[in-house]
Amino acid sequence: MGLRDRYQARSPGMGPTITDDLERTWEKSSRYDRVARVRSTERLTETGTVRMAFDVVDDQPFVLKPGQFVGIQALVGDFGYRKSPYCVLSPPGDEQRFELLIRVVPEGPLSCYLASLKVGDEISFRGPTGRSMVPKDDDTSQLCLMATGVGISPFLSLVKVLADRGFPRPIRLYWGLRLVEDICLIDELDELVSSVEDFQYQISLSQPPEDWTGLRGRLTETVPPLLEKLGDRRFYLVGNGAMNKEMAGALSDLGVDRHFIYEEHYFNLKYQPDNDTLREIRRRFVANDLFSPVAHQEAGGWLQRDGQGP
Predict the structure, then answer these.
(1) For the chain, which terminus, N or C, has the lower number of CB atoms within 10 Å?
(2) pTM of the model
(3) DSSP secondary structure string for all residues of 259-292
(4) Which fold has domain 3-8+29-129?
């Protein structure tokens, strides 16, 4: 019996249950009033990454912008109703379809439920909604994209759209994963490298094997030494809230305007880095093209406590 069957099974011939009553009440009041049908599922890694494709089967338009998400809610057996936003992996198109990249984790009943669905099963969702990641036409900045785990989803959509529009400036993608077994979507990434004029990506593993030749460490460790300038870039941070908050805090301390830092948190939403952590990350940056208020203050001794610089 699969996960979905275990969550939903009941004996043949049973009459209405409390679950049935809850579902009827929810259907009358829920904002998750759209319907999509599973078109395909693909297990991308043995560590729990699943790619799912859906056809929108209601009569409402599905108009997507890169960076937007759909919200999914389901009645997951004894766990009750569970809901979560998922950034859309696929780029906008004329068809009423979308794809999601889902990380299946034991402590996430909804992720287990979705991964257990079969072709033809239906889900209730709302959206798409959220901000677009597409820069304004008059924006001359390069793009620095940083993702952890399935946070790479909106970036694939974004790069494809920008490529179709002839985006003329460099795009750099840094993808943080834990294990080499977590790596997937390489064919899609390599295709973008070959088809987009100035797109490059690097993968950083926090627990790499000995023979790993890519970046080694968390993004907050491996990316700062690679950035020679900060002032001509927009930064997009998607995934683990800890990475997002640490990187955004360090960039802001080094003089990057907060308006040039886009954050999308998938978990660790309440995490707040301490001053020591931010100081250590700032020290890893080689860029010094912006005025850094924190560095200026610490150099002057206003915030200095231990005799050390930023």
Answers:
(1) N
(2) 0.86
(3) GGEEEEEEE-TT----HHHHHHHHHH-----S--
(4) Elongation Factor Tu (Ef-tu); domain 3 (2.40.30)
